[in-house]
Design brief:
This protein has 7 helices and 17 strands. By secondary structure, the chain is an alpha+beta fold. It has 2 domains: about 170 residues, Aminotransferase class 4, branched-chain amino acid transferase, N-terminal domain (D-amino Acid Aminotransferase, Chain A, domain 1); about 160 residues, D-amino Acid Aminotransferase, subunit A, domain 2 (D-amino Acid Aminotransferase, Chain A, domain 2), CATH 3.20.10. Strands 1, 2, 3, 4, 5, 6, 7 and 17 form an 8-stranded antiparallel β-sheet that branches. The structure holds 2-OXO-4-methylpentanoic acid. Keywords: Amino-acid biosynthesis, Aminotransferase, Branched-chain amino acid biosynthesis, Pyridoxal phosphate, Transferase.
């Protein structure tokens, strides 16, 4: 994982004039912005429908200093990926689910969202316009970041008079890089991410800034990431800074329920289905820290993270080690999921959406 803009975007440039691919050193991809050629922008007045958006050159946008997003954080974002398959198709994974999640978030934050159809169309257009930035198979994916912001001015606390829906993309590797090995998590008992009735269950921009400090503290103590506990009791696990968590014991896979305080992950939902397909019993229920410490295996899921094994969890002075590697369920589920996403196996679930017109 790296910071916002790739430290040396220009050093990623390799050779000029290759039309199939942008000049990127694909071996060095991390999870940091590499600006691409185009983005999608659409606007609408509060309560009206979004105009047909436009693909425009990627770059800064101009909005009022009094915009609701700047002043009280009225914004939600999504994250999904475009994949280049071995047979040169460009595909998306369940983009309608992201469109629906944006609608739920918009409802919670009193924003006007694009329709699911417009959302998916905007994602397709943006990926197609930036097709040469989709990494070669096996080297990474094109991360797609749809953003809905209150762009109209609002001095008091109310919903903005105007909304901007934009989509930009960046080639990325997995968030917690495969080469960096399994995760060593700290259970965080000092900060809380979310509370009942708040916005923890939607992908609101305001959920993310407050987790930067706890994550930095955990990193400086040598951990790779942190796991938050529930605000009500401090006894149950909720989610990692940017992904959902699962524990495995015997044939039972358990994960915290979608009850408004954790993000309803699309990878989470897909992994639940895949685990059931191979005869695991999956329980969506409160999972206590005690159970976490007694689990055989722990892993996390997310669009940026994909499926990642957890090697150790530390809670107060106690450190527990879990099963990882070839024998771990997370390895099997990772392979099942990415084989569908990369077109290695037939998609029997209708999850993969091919973007038309991609063949050279
Ligand atoms: C994603 O997995 O798409 C996320 O949104 C996490 C992100 C904040 C890196």
């Amino acid at each position: 994982m790296t910071s916002s803009v790739h430290p040396s975007s220009s050093s990623l440039l390799t050779r000029e004039g290759d039309e199939k691919y942008a000049n990127v050193n694909w071996e060095e991809l991390g999870f940091a912005l590499i600006p691409t050629d185009y983005m999608y922008v659409a606007k609408c007045k509060q309560g009206e429908s979004f105009s047909e958006g436009k693909i425009v050159p990627y770059g800064d946008i101009s909005i009022s200093p009094c915009a609701a997003i700047f002043n009280h954080g009225q914004g939600i974002f999504e994250g999904l990926k475009a994949y280049r398959t071995e047979d040169e198709r460009i595909t998306l994974f369940r983009p309608d689910q992201n469109g629906l999640r944006m609608q739920n978030g918009a409802d919670r934050l009193c924003m006007t969202p694009p329709s699911v159809e417009q959302f998916v169309e905007a994602v397709k257009q943006t990926v197609l316009a930036n097709k040469k930035w989709v990494p070669p198979p096996g080297k990474g994916t094109l991360y797609v970041r749809p953003l809905l912001i209150g762009s109209g001015p609002m001095l008091g606390i109310a919903s903005a008079p105007e909304y901007t829906f934009l989509v930009y993309v960046s080639p990325v590797a997995e968030y917690h890089k495969v080469s960096s090995g399994p995760l060593n998590l700290e259970v965080n008992d000092k900060y809380r991410r979310s509370h009942a009735g708040g916005t923890g269950g939607v992908k609101s921009c305001i959920n993310y800034c407050p987790i930067v400090k706890p994550v930095l503290e955990a990193k400086s103590a040598g951990f790779s990431d942190i796991l938050f506990l529930d605000a009500a009791t401090g006894r149950n696990i909720e989610e990692i800074s940017t992904c959902n968590i699962f524990i495995v014991k015997g044939n039972i896979v358990s994960t915290p329920p979608i009850s408004g305080t954790i993000l309803p992950g699309i990878t989470r939902k897909s992994i639940i289905e895949l685990a059931r397909d191979i005869s695991y019993q999956v329980q969506e229920r409160d999972v206590s820290v005690d159970e976490l410490l007694e689990a055989e295996e722990v892993f996390c899921t997310g669009t940026a993270t994909v499926v990642k094994a957890v090697e150790t969890v530390t809670f107060h002075e106690k450190r527990v080690k879990y099963k990882t590697g070839e024998e771990a369920l997370s390895t099997k589920l990772y392979t099942m999921l990415t084989n569908i996403q990369m077109g290695v196996v037939e998609d029997k679930k209708g999850w993969v959406v091919e973007i038309d017109g991609c063949h050279d």
